[in-house]
Amino acid sequence: MPRAYTPKIVTANDLLEGDVIYLTADDRWSRRMAEAELITDEAHAQLRLLDAERQTDRVVGAYLADAQAGESGPEPTHFREDFRRRGPSNYRHGKQETAPQPRA
């Protein structure tokens, strides 16, 4: 019996600033995971990833990450994605310091 498909989001890093960004349903890139498009169809996820990978002037390292529906939008299912959405871990200043922190 085939395994059930785990919902995904498309994530990458902003080419110029390096920030973690997420592809939204209306083809924008957002720094908020809650705005990401939660994709429940495997074929659609692959198409969205291809769209993201073509944007070489905007993003680098696009990939599909497992996610689940949450109260305010998609939430990570793996600690790696939870860690990535919080920003750099080696310092506490700049963008990470001023950004609203997701609830743990």
Order of helices and strands: EEEHEEHH
Radius of gyration from the alpha-carbon trace, in angstroms = 14 Å
Cross-sheet strand order for the largest sheet: 3-2-1-4-5
Q: What is the chains' assembly state?
A: single chain
The residue fraction in helices comes out at 10-25%
Distance between the termini: 35 Å
How many individual helices? Answer: 3
Q: Give the class from helix and strand content and strand pairing.
A: alpha+beta
Which term fits the overall shape? Answer: globular
Uncertain runs: none
Structurally, how many domains make up the residues?
1
Q: Report the sheet-strand fraction.
A: 25-35%
Biggest sheet record: 5 strands, antiparallel
The average pLDDT value, as a whole number, equals: 87
Q: Report the count of strand segments.
A: 5
Region (Disordered): 65-104
Protein name: Sulfite reductase (NADPH) hemoprotein beta-component
